[in-house]
Design goal:
Layout lengths: L3 H12 L2 E3 L7 E3 L2 E2 L8 H8 L13 H16 L10 H14 L1 H14 L18 H13 L2 H22 L7 H6 L7
Antiparallel strand pairs: 1-2, 2-3
Length: 193
């Protein structure tokens, strides 16, 4: 079964530190936690206090309580709803977690469901899933059935193709989002081993 800590460490590599970029739809963010999407996160109070002190934003790195709040937020908000501890493959769990953090739980789960549907050998491994963004018992059962017959690497490639296509669609619809292309595409790891 999968472990939260490696998934969290991998995702934080992409999330960076404190940013307040007006082009970012999430607005002010800290380690990927967008204030517009998560205004009630307890870490914002600590960050707002730190803004009034010298050394901001670098000073945030040494705030152990804030770093613990970041980890707790990611575990509660993304890992637990994805049933990360129940996922049977670490690499798949890390991919789903990272996609959920970057694009939302529903979209990450829809990617998994769509990928499992195209890899079910015409329904011979398991019936097509309803693509509803809910990672429930049927999706988990299909994932287990898939992994009994096929390698995780193929599923990871399909997940990354869907992720990359989503980024292209976002940038096509809103060219200002092209500012984030290079960071987004660092998350798309097609050559998994």
């Amino acid at each position: 079964m999968a472990n939260f800590n490696p998934a969290f460490k991998r995702t934080l590599v992409h999330e960076g530190e404190y940013v307040s970029d007006p082009r970012d739809r999430g607005g002010e963010t800290y380690k990927g936690i967008a204030r517009r999407r998560h205004p009630g996160w307890e870490g914002w109070a600590r960050i707002d206090k730190a803004k009034r002190r010298r050394g901001f934003p670098a000073s945030l790195r040494s705030d152990a309580a804030l770093q613990a709040e970041v980890g707790n937020f990611y575990r509660r908000t993304f890992w637990e709803p994805l049933q990360g501890d129940a996922l049977p493959d670490q690499a798949i769990a890390e991919e789903l977690f990272d996609s959920a953090v970057n694009m939302g739980l529903t979209r990450a789960t829809e990617f998994l469901q769509r990928a499992l549907n195209v890899l079910n050998r015409g329904g011979k491994l398991y019936a097509d899933l309803v693509v509803d963004g809910d990672l429930g018992s049927k999706t988990l059962a299909a994932l287990h059935a898939y992994l009994k017959k096929d390698p995780a690497e193929l599923l990871l490639k399909v997940l990354n193709v869907l992720q990359g296509a989503h980024y292209i669609q976002l940038m096509t619809q809103s060219p200002v989002q092209e500012a984030f292309a290079r960071g987004w595409f660092k998350r798309v790891e097609i050559d998994v081993a």
